[in-house]
Design goal:
Blueprint lengths: L4 H13 L19 E3 L2 E7 L41 E4 L16 E10 L5 E6 L5 E6 L2 E7 L5 E4 L7 E10 L24 E6 L4 E8 L6 E8 L7 E6 L4 E6 L5 E7 L13 E6 L4 E6 L4 E4 L2 E4 L2 E2 L2 E6 L13 H14 L3 E4 L6 H9 L3 E5 L11 H18 L5 E8 L5 H17 L4 E6 L8 E2 L12 E4 L11 H4 L1 E2 L7 E5 L18 H18 L5 E2 L7 E2 L12 E2 L12 H12 L1
Parallel strand pairs: 21-22, 21-30, 22-23, 23-24, 24-25, 25-27, 26-28, 27-29, 29-30
Antiparallel strand pairs: 1-10, 2-3, 2-4, 4-9, 5-8, 5-10, 6-7, 6-9, 11-12, 12-15, 13-14, 13-16, 16-17, 18-19, 19-20, 31-32
Helix pairs in contact: 2-3, 4-5, 7-8
The chain binds (2S,3S,4S,5R)-3,4,5-trihydroxy-6-oxo-oxane-2-carboxylic acid (GCB).
């Protein structure tokens, strides 16, 4: 216990320092896509800078005249400048750099990006918004730093009003995707470390007094009471806020308190969102000066005993795990069109649920899933061997969790917040994750908490889970690879499961690898037949020798790139546990699971 005392201290300090990893960050604007935006997407000039010579001088001190200044040659006395954005190549933003330039395929380090845009001053405020940058983003506007953000999968924004000029403006971003043992994720993970400005870049215009965030959802425990909370950027009481849901003939004017927050709850009769009827309502939040439009669904999700109830009825989560990697071309996904391809595959499989692993996917993915009637498990990359004893790691994780929750808080489709994946059990880890679980509960009582745990067996034949984090979660989820890492496959016929928690249970991963088109007997590793048989046996084990489950999300929908997967002619840099290959071919196991889902 002694060893972790400093850690306990930092858990108390953490809320105080929270948000200060990136001091210049403004609170996240809710639903930028429902606002007046100028897209800065397009072709950006870039400079690859492995030694960060655009940032540090020759004594390795931050340079005052780094690349972010983008100085004109003739403004210098001696004309000497050793970089030139104008003469540098361009790449498409949003987009990872690895799949746009062969030289950058395995690159991990710094790349500078520059874009120019026109701006006309007005009485409005302008935010510079990034959907995500992997991993460390230092952002400059017209030569001045506006802020920095850590974490590769969540949105962030800066108020840049005072830095903009009439006419041409320049935004420069130093992006560094070097892995680090103290980061979230750490330096060791089983997916591809796509670097760059991987999601939309937007200029968002808002009035001086604007709607910073809002949450419109059913109140916990009710299928009728809609609960609204709207926060303005000013701490002024008495500002009228209108909340309108035209289809429900709801139009209500409420008033802010001294914190600039307006709340309301009232009885309505919305048609409830469900996979069968993914009904969304147009919701308009407005003040005298600002207006945001959204599409919001209403549903009630809860856990009772070992059941998960959707709108009061027990439901089985027919799921699949998905990485945010494009079908056919394997780069990072950032558009609704590409999200729909993967999600349509999941629907075809018979899914009503997807586990978006192992980090927050882009907003389009979450919104499209919701529209298609897929429930969502949202996750942050607390993966494997995290530095549980480091304040910076905790703050980073908390920040990513908060940004994900803030972004997705109005999505009825999102039913589970997941804290972590396969993290080794220790006291420090339990404190770290326990503190995060408390934060999640405080922020949102309308969704369930889970995390992918690991097995702790009772004996060779009796498999189980025993994890102290169980008291913090609503759903016990665990990954298990009997028949693959834990072979041979016949073991699936011999073992049974006993889990001693009176909580709903999900198998968040199982699976095995197969190269599409490779055939053999049921026991030939890497053949489609092996994988299909593994699914057959696992599903039988679930039917016959596993406590009642509320869902599964097998690993994984599509083969995905991972530098850990090195077997020539079979893996070639891909994790081959996909039910569909990277080229879109369905493997035999796809149809086994599809059949099982049909009967569920
Ligand atoms: C796991 C991890 C997942 C890996 C998978 C595998 O347990 O959660 O990220 O990709 O196993 O294929 O080994």
């Amino acid at each position: 216990m002694k060893k972790i005392t400093p850690f306990i201290c930092f858990l108390f300090i953490a809320p105080l320092v929270y948000g200060q990893t990136s001091t210049e960050l403004e609170p996240l604007l809710q639903n930028v896509y429902g606002r007046n935006v100028q897209r800065l997407n397009g072709y950006w000039n870039y400079i690859i800078d492995p030694l960060e010579s655009g940032y540090y001088d020759y004594r390795h001190q931050p340079a005052a005249d780094g690349f972010f200044k983008d100085v004109k040659k003739d403004s210098l006395d001696n004309n000497l400048r050793e970089y030139d954005f104008d003469a540098s190549p361009v790449m498409a933003i949003p987009g990872d750099w690895n799949t746009q330039n062969r030289d950058l395929f395995y690159y991990e380090g710094t790349v500078w990006f520059r874009q120019k845009f026109q701006y006309q001053p007005s009485d409005k405020r302008t935010f510079l918004y990034f959907g995500a940058v992997n991993y460390d983003a230092k952002v400059y506007v017209n030569g001045k730093k506006v802020g920095e953000h850590y974490g590769g999968f969540t949105p962030f924004n800066f108020d840049v009003t005072d830095k903009l000029m009439a006419g041409e403006n320049v935004v420069i971003v130093k992006v560094d995707n070097k892995r680090s043992t103290t980061a979230v994720p750490t330096d060791n993970f089983d997916w591809f470390n796509y670097g760059g400005i991987t999601r939309d870049v937007l200029l968002v215009e808002v009035p001086k007094t604007y709607i910073q965030t809002y949450k419109v959802q059913l109140k916990k425990g009710s299928e009728k009471i809609i609960k609204v909370s709207v926060k303005l950027n000013v701490s002024t009481a008495g500002i009228p806020v209108t909340i309108a849901i035209p289809e429900l003939k709801l139009s209500k004017i409420i008033s802010t308190n001294i914190e600039g927050v307006a709340t309301w709850e009232g009885k309505e009769s919305p048609k409830l969102w469900s996979p069968k009827n993914p009904k969304l309502y147009k919701v308009i939040v407005s003040t005298y000066s600002d207006k945001v439009t959204d599409e919001i669904g209403f549903r009630q999700i809860s856990a009772r005993g070992n059941k998960v109830l959707l709108n009061g009825k027990s439901i089985f989560l027919k799921g699949v795990s998905i990485h945010e990697e494009a079908a056919f071309r394997s780069g990072r996904i950032f558009s609704a069109d590409e999200a729909r391809i993967l999600l349509a595959w999941a629907k075809d499989l018979g899914c009503n649920y997807v586990r978006l692993a192992h980090y927050p996917h882009n907003e389009q993915m979450v919104r499209e899933a919701e529209k298609m009637g897929l429930m969502v498990w949202d996750e942050i990359p607390l993966y494997w061997t995290i530095h549980w004893d480091k304040l910076e790691t905790y703050t980073n994780a908390m920040n990513q969790l908060d940004e994900m929750m803030e972004r997705d808080q109005n999505r009825a489709g999102v039913i589970i917040w997941s804290l972590a994946n396969e993290t080794p059990v220790s006291e420090a880890r339990n404190l770290f994750l326990g503190a995060l679980a408390r934060m999640v509960r405080e922020k949102d009582d309308t969704r369930l908490i889970s995390m992918a745990m690991e097995r702790k067996d009772k004996s060779k034949e009796v498999l189980s889970v025993n994890d102290d984090m169980s008291k913090h979660v609503d759903i016990i989820s665990f990954n298990q690879y009997v028949g693959w890492y834990d072979g041979p496959k016949d073991k699936l016929d011999q073992v049974k499961w006993e889990i001693d928690y009176d909580k709903p249970i999900i198998i968040s991963e199982f699976g095995g690898g197969a190269l599409a088109g490779r055939h053999g007997g049921d026991n030939d590793l890497w053949s489609e037949e092996y994988q299909a048989d593994l699914y057959r046996k696992t599903l039988k084990m679930i039917d016959e020798r596993t406590p009642t489950l509320v869902g599964i999300s097998p690993w994984v929908l599509k083969d995905f790139r991972s530098p850990r997967r090195l077997l020539p002619q079979i893996q070639d840099g891909f994790n081959r546990k996909g039910l569909i290959s990277d080229r879109g071919e369905r493997k035999q196991a796809f149809f086994i699971l599809q059949e099982w889902y049909k009967k569920k």
